[in-house]
Amino acid sequence: MNKYKLLNSTVVVLVLLSLFFSGVAAEEEAKGVTFEQPILITSFGQSPGAMMAKVLSKRVDLEFVYNPTVKGENLEELDINTIVAVVGASGKGLGAAGLDIEDEISRVESLLQTAEELEIPMIIMHIEGVQRRGDMSNKLIKTFVPQSEYIIVQKSGNDDGLFTKLSEENEITLEQVEKAADAAPVLNEIID
Amino acid sequence: MFHNKSVSRKALILFLSLTLLLVSFYAVSAEEHSVNVSRVSVSDSGVVTSAHSLASKAGAEILSQGGNAVDAAVATAFALSVVEPYASGLGGEGVATIGLANGEDVVVDYKSMAPGHVTEETNIDVNYGAEGSAVPGVVAGLAHSLKEYGTMELDQVLQPAIDLARNGFPLDEVFHDTLSAHGFYEKMIDNPEKFNLETVSKRFLEGGLLPEVGTTIKNPELADALELIAEEGASAFYEGKIAEAISEATEGWIGKEDLKKYSPVEREPIASDYRNYMVLSPPPPVGGAIVVEELNILENFNLAHLGRYDHPLAVHLISQATMLGSRDGATFRADPDFTDIPLKGLASDEFATERAKLINMGKAMEERQFDVPQGNPGGFKPEEKSKEEANSPSTTQISVVDEEGNAVSMTNTNSYFWGSQLFVEEYGFVLNNEIHNFTPAKYETLNTIAPYKRPRTVIAPTIVRRNDGSVYLVVGTPGAGRITTTIVETIVNMVDFNMPLTEAIKSPKFTSRLWYDELRMEKGYPEETLEELRNMGHKIKLYPKLDLYFGGVNAVQLTDNGLMVGVGSYRRDGAAATAEEK
Predict the structure, then answer these.
(1) Is the Cβ of A47 closer than 8 Å to some Cβ of chain B?
(2) Which spans in B381-526 are helix H?
(3) Using CA atoms, how far apart are residues B77 and A23, in angstroms rounded to an integer?
């Protein structure tokens, strides 16, 4: 009897989850935005979060191109259908890429301009938590999150509600996850 | 009955007294083994400072158990190899300046050395993988220091490190951030086989993701290595199972014969008077001679008269002195066992005065790079060109003073954070990437690679004594090319500007070196100072905050009233731990 109860509960949870995710997907589709593979995984700020997104994408078998410093002029040749940008500034990462924060902002602006011309939608992720919320990261978040079509944020990175505020102001769907690893099923669900 | 009661009462009193005695005994014992850890700690019975609170604590526990400064420094260094494996460890190298309470001073040089098979044609421009690695010196150097100047056995001082590696420790922000330094995270994900990172990626990552701060990190393979060393001594590393594993991991680049041949070298510190203090710093192949030369140059100017560290003229004079010091350091710094270096000339007041004459009080040297005029401290033919050394602000500093007044200033490094990124997988440690610190043969410098030669670096663990011989300051820092300027500025802040150690460390720093086209400065200097410096012709590059780029000083000051003030780095979450009074 207990086994049946457990089975029933599991089925109910699975149905609810699938309804939830299909609802989310439907919501995006209703806005005319669909996220399709292959995706470009890139960084806005050169933190290691982009590499984490690569690991997450591998977990759910997404077809991707990984290029944390991609430029607008190279976007077309990559032949991708969605940009997954992990936002988070790292002084070390920027230094290693030979960039300062202003260079990085220029690079991203040019990338997004080309993306708009090519009608490539963007999912923005912030998955390194509150530690990746310094002044430089905040500048990137405030500048570029409003230009995205979907936001995935790890809970502690949204402690102050900045992502919620940007999401509401710009009518962008926001998915808050408990842990970085929880972003993988979300990516899997929203990207066809 | 009454009698019996009386006996019972006496027995009870005796029992309670014994209990109290036992309780107080254990309380004292507990107190003996307890330590205080914070950014700044004050004590009269010993202080340990390092880049990590758990490592400082390990050292202070050794002091509490009756160990001396050398015992504590060695314990701290091994603990750092666990909690800060990116900055130093068994596969790295270092130098210790030891100042004993009896006035004896010695430098233990356990720099890495090139393997025996290298030639002048060997490509030194390799940072990652086996060919970037030199024969490690840390284990031999720490074991030697302990045996000659410590009081404890290896197994005692290794125990805190073994416990940390075996039982785990919480991942801190610096470790978390450094996991991605120099592409290490990417290599763990993309190239784990090539760099022997399969095991370590399981230890340091969570399912391939960077773990959250606070996650417990264990390194049982490193615990095995430390236990082997505790049981068998340094020979386990240089001749035993670990030697075999190193040779295998590097596919023979570092051979078993190379490891067997390694030994630390004792050297005499360079000693020079600076405004009635005696500065003791290690000779080449590291940077102590530069520190001494730069201070000697500055002694030609009345800095105290300027009143404050951020006075534009103070910054200008120090920047010019450190520019000249770096010029001479580029020439006269190499393995002294392979060449004659005019050390006496470099450390002499006469030479410093000659160099000081080149400084224009109101104008920055226009020439940069190798146009800065070369000094000639001993009729030594100068080289024409060289190359800049490593710029990674890796490396780690330990400063210790014990109750007796023994002092240790120790700087250890893997060169870059995560060194060559090549792990000796079965023993959980990374090998250094020191080979790139040799200078290409085409430049014909003293620092050309040769078999068993030690590459030069700029580390400079320093001790400053008062006129009466007592220790005044134990200081050192990581920070690659900024090491010598940061040490000089810290000493000047204290000696010339009478700043307390906390402020001397915390105040903004700048660096001016041969290889930099501009004066690089941390934020915090007054706008008028910056303006005046620009008027003098300095090009200024500002860093927006206190930055690890400028080092991470960990230091201990002994005050005139006998107190020991330990300060951990403000730029790298350093900590000072004190031994509880007995």
Answers:
(1) yes
(2) 483-495, 501-506
(3) 56
CA dihedral B74, B79, B82, B88 (to 10 degrees): -40
Of B351, B360, B357, residue with least CA distance to B290: B351
Does A154 lie at the interface with B, CB-CB under 8 angstroms?
Answer: no
For CA atoms B125, B128, B129, B132, give the dihedral sign.
positive
Spacing of C-alpha A74 from chain mean position: 20
- DSSP E strand boundaries for B118-186: 169-170
Assign B36 to helix, strand or coil. Answer: strand
Q: Are B146 and B78 in contact (CB under 8 A)?
A: no
Residue whose structure tokens are 């005994």: B25
DSSP annotation of B103: S
Residues B65 and B153: their CA atoms lie apart, in Å, by 12
The SS3 of residue B390 is: coil
Catalytic (active-site) positions of B: 395
Model ipTM? 0.77
The angle at the Cα of B385, spanning B383 to B388, to the nearest 5 degrees, equals 120
Q: Which stretches of chain B sit within 8 Å of chain A by CB?
A: 173, 176-177, 179-183, 185-186, 189, 206-210, 212-213, 547
Contacting residues for A116 by C-beta, under 8 A, at least 6 apart: none
**Model pLDDT for residues B248-300, shown as the tens digit of each residue:** 999 999 999 999 999 999 999 999 999 999 999 999 999 999 999 999 999 99
Torsions phi, psi for B549 (to 5 deg):
-55, -35
The strand pairing partners of B169, in sequence order, are B217
